């Protein structure tokens, strides 16, 4: 996959004659900003490679490369790039892992993970978002990601265990099924906390069958919901 081939090198404001920065320039500026919080060169390289704008076509090009979350409908957001980088870095991927992502959303996080892991299974509660993510990933030629529709609280027991698990919505407590589906020695990274209260980004490592917890700081995520949701309420 060569993300640079997806777009023309420069874009122009219609009717103004004023040139916008190229996609590569916008992405490089974003990665330079993310690098203030993320040190992993492989994670930064993956974020430099993946075109975020391909996952938020409803937003303008420059907005797509701002370091902030963006709404994608169904009360769901694409995460702030710095948070994507921090969570990806916390997984400590070497390229051999099987990863479970809970909360596909736009598919952007899965695309970044796909650059760094052997295979990614990602599960989404909203069927329309899962379908949209599949199209975006396929358009970029990403073939080591499988998108599933279902309840993320249940994980994917038929495919477990997973070397790494990352959750992109906040449950109020650690889902038991996910802890059970994490392989020995693996990492589980997720935000935990109430919708309107304090949420903490946590990393759990499984050792001798038990989880050892680390606090990685405060975050703000949409809540993790149960069950397949229908398309009513889309915005």
How would you summarize this macromolecular structure in one to three sentences?
The protein has helices at 23-34, 41-49, 61-64, 81-90, 108-114, 127-139, 176-181, and strands at residues 11-12, 19-20, 70-73, 76-78, 98-102, 119-124, 145-149, 162-167, 182-192, 199-207, 210-219.
Describe the 3D structure.
- The structure is a single chain.
- With 235 residues, this protein is of the alpha/beta class.
- It has a domain at 74-219: Vaccinia Virus protein VP39 (Rossmann fold), CATH 3.40.50.150.
- Helix content is 26%, strand content 27%.
- The chain has helices spanning 23-34, 41-49, 61-64, 81-90, 108-114, 127-139, 176-181, and strands spanning 11-12, 19-20, 70-73, 76-78, 98-102, 119-124, 145-149, 162-167, 182-192, 199-207, 210-219.
- Strand 5, helix 5 and strand 6 (119-124) form a beta-alpha-beta unit.
- The protein is globular and about 55 Å long.
